[in-house]
């Protein structure tokens, strides 16, 4: 009897594995016919145009932070500092998003968080004595100091939104406006909804077919992985294969690619930093919050808590939108975000 049970269990396990293998190999979105041709052209092209501004390093304590400062079109109206999400470097900001500020005459500053891109990778990191979000906020301020920028509109996405909060708390006199995208006031608060395991599992399963490209390896396949994930999230409309391939391959060739260790480091920095609740109540800075109602990383009550804590903050709920960027209706979001920034100048 036991042998029969073991046999059927092994048979079930075999068919589950076989199904997963078939799903990975044959599942996922179909890449457009021109994908291979475009990627081949990109690999043979000069990709230096990916960087459009002045670059350099700022020193934050003994940590080197790489930055890029992109000049505006027309007479400068102000400065915008972009803070990317967990484990990401500044190449993760969509060029179209950056261009909207350039066209509105804002100087844009983006930088690689510690542990990513061309900033120092924290090789001697210790989980028992980790760096905190306050340290990462000091990295952002070090970039502003290096560029001699006194006042800035600060935008933070996910973990970058937590860093933006810390900058605003420590240096309110330097912040003209604060924009918080899909973020949280305190990831360690047990009373807020935790990360949705069910939604994450569903998302992980749907993303499995893209793994085949990573398994095959090489810069061309990694570009295909990014394109496949983009199609899965947004569909084929407005898909820019060339741009995605350029960003991916340039990052691999010139910027060391993704540092997966930084994801863990950033997560622990967020969970180890003290609560911002009482500090946010004293923050009288024009604040715009954007949050998806279907966010699986920071469920809706994280956005609601931010709105409750920050005086006179306004919020834009994105119905059915998950933890993703750019958002599905990015044109409408950009319009409201720019209105917030422009009004804060007055």
Helices and strands, with pairings:
Blueprint: H1 2-26, H2 35-43, E1 54-60, E2 63-70, E3 78-83, H3 95-103, E4 106-111, H4 133-146, E5 152-157, H5 159-170, E6 175-181, H6 197-206, H7 211-216, H8 219-234, H9 241-254, H10 260-272, H11 277-280, E7 287-292, H12 300-309, E8 314-318, H13 330-344
Parallel strand pairs: 3-4, 3-5, 5-6, 6-7, 7-8
Antiparallel strand pairs: 1-2, 2-4
Q: Using the alpha-carbon principal axes, give the shape.
A: globular
Main β-sheet description: 8 strands, mixed
Pairing-aware structural class of the strands and helices? alpha/beta
String of helices and strands: HHEEEHEHEHEHHHHHHEHEH
How far is the N terminus from the C terminus? 79 Å
List the uncertain runs. none
CATH topology type of the largest domain: Rossmann fold
Please explain how this structure is put together.
With about 350 residues, the chain is an alpha/beta fold. It has 2 domains: about 1-30; about 30-345, Alpha/Beta hydrolase fold, catalytic domain (Rossmann fold), CATH 3.40.50. About 45% of the residues lie in helices and about 15% in strands. It is built from 13 helices and 8 strands. The protein has helices spanning about 1-25, 35-45, 95-105, 135-145, 160-170, 195-205, 210-215, 220-235, 240-255, 260-270, 275-280, 300-310, 330-345; strands at about 55-60, 65-70, 80-85, 105-110, 150-155, 175-180, 285-290, 315-320. It has an 8-stranded mixed beta sheet, sandwiched between helices. Strand 3 (about 80-85), helix 3 (about 95-105) and strand 4 form a beta-alpha-beta unit. The longest helix has 25 residues, at about 1-25. The protein is globular.
């Amino acid at each position: 009897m036991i042998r029969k049970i073991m046999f059927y269990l092994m048979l079930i396990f075999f068919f589950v594995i076989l199904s997963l293998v078939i799903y990975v190999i044959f599942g996922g979105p179909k890449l457009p016919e021109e994908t291979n041709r475009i990627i081949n052209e990109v690999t043979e092209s000069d990709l230096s145009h990916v960087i459009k501004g002045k670059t350099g390093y700022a020193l934050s304590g003994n940590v080197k932070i790489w930055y890029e400062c992109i000049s505006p079109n027309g007479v400068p109206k102000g400065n915008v500092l972009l803070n990317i999400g967990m484990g990401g470097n500044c190449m993760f900001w969509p060029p179209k998003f950056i261009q909207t500020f350039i066209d509105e005459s804002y100087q844009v500053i983006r930088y690689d968080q510690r542990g990513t891109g061309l900033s120092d990778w924290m090789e001697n990191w210790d989980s028992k004595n980790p760096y905190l979000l306050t340290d990462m906020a000091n990295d952002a301020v070090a970039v502003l100091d290096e560029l001699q920028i006194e006042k800035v509109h600060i935008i933070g996405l996910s973990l970058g939104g937590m860093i933006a909060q810390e900058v605003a708390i420590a240096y309110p006199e330097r912040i003209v406006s604060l924009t918080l995208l899909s973020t949280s006031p305190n990831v360690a608060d047990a009373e807020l909804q935790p990360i949705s395991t069910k939604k994450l599992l569903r998302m992980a399963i749907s993303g499995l077919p893209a793994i085949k490209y990573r398994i095959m390896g090489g810069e061309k396949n990694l570009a295909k992985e990014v394109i496949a994930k983009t199609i899965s999230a947004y569909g084929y409309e407005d898909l820019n294969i060339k741009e995605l391939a350029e960003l991916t391959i340039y990052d691999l060739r010139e910027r060391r690619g993704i540092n997966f260790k930084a994801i863990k480091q950033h997560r622990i920095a967020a969970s180890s930093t003290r609560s911002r609740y009482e500090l946010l109540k004293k923050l009288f800075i024009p604040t715009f919050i954007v949050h998806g109602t279907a966010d699986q990383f920071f469920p809706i009550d994280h956005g609601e808590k931010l709105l409750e804590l920050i005086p006179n903050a306004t919020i834009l709920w994105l119905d059915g939108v998950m933890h993703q960027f750019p958002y599905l209706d990015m044109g409408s979001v950009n319009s409201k975000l720019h209105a917030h920034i422009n009004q804060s100048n007055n």
